[in-house]
Specification:
mainly alpha, Rossmann fold, 5 strands, single chain, five-stranded parallel beta sheet
């Protein structure tokens, strides 16, 4: 189905403020774990080998600590298999998942945080996505004794960080060994891998089934722990809406859009911050703009190809500008459109958040040069027109 055409103008465009430099990102301590510290040995060595071991000398210490962590993850995986293997093989999802879709920096994280306030719904935590192999046996320790390992804020924005915060399941898939465009973050100066998994082109049936098996295995473990409908948020799923609806009959989809004039510089900032903190190379920022444009094109090619096959009670479209203006009304619309549980049960907590914390949250402000704006208006013309951001 097509989203309803907006009848009101888009929110204010990005303010004229120079972009922040890397030093102005929220600090990420040297002792804090990186994504790769959650990988098992085989996945970790494959990542290095595929990138020809091209780590910069300044990042060799990180290579060493990940190499030491991998056997530890292997051991905990064996322990989880011994304790929970049979139960997970017999487990079933409590209900079809709810997927939050949208480009990076479109408001998917804010939606994930708000949905997580409903105790009837469950979101994968940062720790579960970091250590998908063994979180059933190890999460209690890290949440109880190792909360100090993570900073209070994410590097790229003002959202809170912590082991118990909702997180993107794409990181879990990556650490489990599934093909993922996020592997680019490790070696950002090399050709980006797995871009076909953004629009689901040239994926044969065997590859699709293997990828679905990775996701299902992770979802079963999350659902087993929470005993609730799982809510997943990964921008990478946006172009996979077709395979997700086939793999999980009855799944619901929540799609959020945002003015591309804010999306583009904010996404560039996102990758810059992740590359600075997570990469094994000294990142070259030059190719970032082309990479952001290509990823966007692929994601929405896949999304617009398959979205019309969904029924009206399977998907709802919302705008970031409406969400930040009135989060409670926007969430109520989502619950009604997707026929989720009674919204009245969660309204008081959402209203309290809107009246207090939401007023204090500040969105990053960005500058978009005129020539860049003209370029994305050409490259992303369909998105500008379809979602009313002209």
């Amino acid at each position: 189905m097509q989203p309803p055409r907006p009848t009101h103008p888009t929110g204010a465009s990005a303010a004229e403020k120079p972009p922040k430099q890397a030093a102005e990102y929220h600090p990420y301590p040297f002792y804090s774990p990186r994504f790769w510290h959650g990988m098992r040995t085989g996945t970790w060595w494959r990542l290095l080998a595929e990138n020809r071991w091209r780590a910069h000398p300044s990042r060799w210490a990180m290579v060493g600590t990940v190499s030491m962590a991998a056997p530890f993850n292997d051991s905990l995986w064996l322990l989880q298999q011994a304790l929970y293997g049979r139960r997970l093989r017999n487990a079933e999802l409590v209900a079809p998942p709810l997927f939050i879709l949208g480009h990076w920096r479109s408001g998917t994280t804010l939606l994930h945080e708000l949905v997580n306030k409903d105790p009837r719904l469950g979101c994968p935590s940062t720790y579960q996505c970091f250590a998908p192999h063994h979180f059933l046996v190890s999460e209690w320790f890290f949440r109880t004794f190792a909360s100090w390992l993570l900073p209070s804020k994410r590097p790229m924005d003002n959202m809170e960080a912590g082991w118990d915060r909702p997180q993107e399941d794409e990181f879990a898939l990556m650490n489990l060994g599934a093909p993922s465009p996020y592997r680019r973050i490790a070696f950002p100066n090399n050709p980006p891998p797995d871009l076909q998994y953004l629009d689901w082109t040239d994926i044969d049936p065997q590859q699709e089934q293997q990828w679905v098996d990775y996701l299902r295995r992770f979802l079963l473990a999350v659902s087993y722990r929470s005993e609730r409908r799982v809510v997943l948020k990964s921008p990478t799923h946006t172009g996979r809406i077709g395979v997700l609806s086939r793999a999980f009959p009855g799944a619901k989809f929540l799609h959020i859009t945002r003015d591309p004039r804010s999306l583009f510089p904010s996404t560039c900032r996102l990758w810059q911050s992740l590359d600075q903190v997570q990469a094994f190379q000294v990142p070259d920022p030059e190719p970032l703009e082309a990479y952001v444009i290509e990823c966007f094109r692929r994601m929405y090619t896949g999304f617009h190809r398959d979205v019309d096959a969904l029924s009206s009670d399977q998907i709802v479209h919302v705008r970031y500008e409406d969400l930040v203006a009135d989060p409670v009304a926007t969430l109520e619309h989502i619950y009604d459109a997707l026929q989720l549980d009674d919204f009245a049960a969660v309204r008081p907590e959402l209203q309290a958040w809107a009246d207090n914390q939401h007023r204090e949250y500040k969105t990053n402000r960005h500058h978009l040069p005129a020539e860049t704006e003209a370029r994305i208006k050409t490259e992303w013309a369909d998105y500008f027109e379809r979602y009313g951001y002209l």
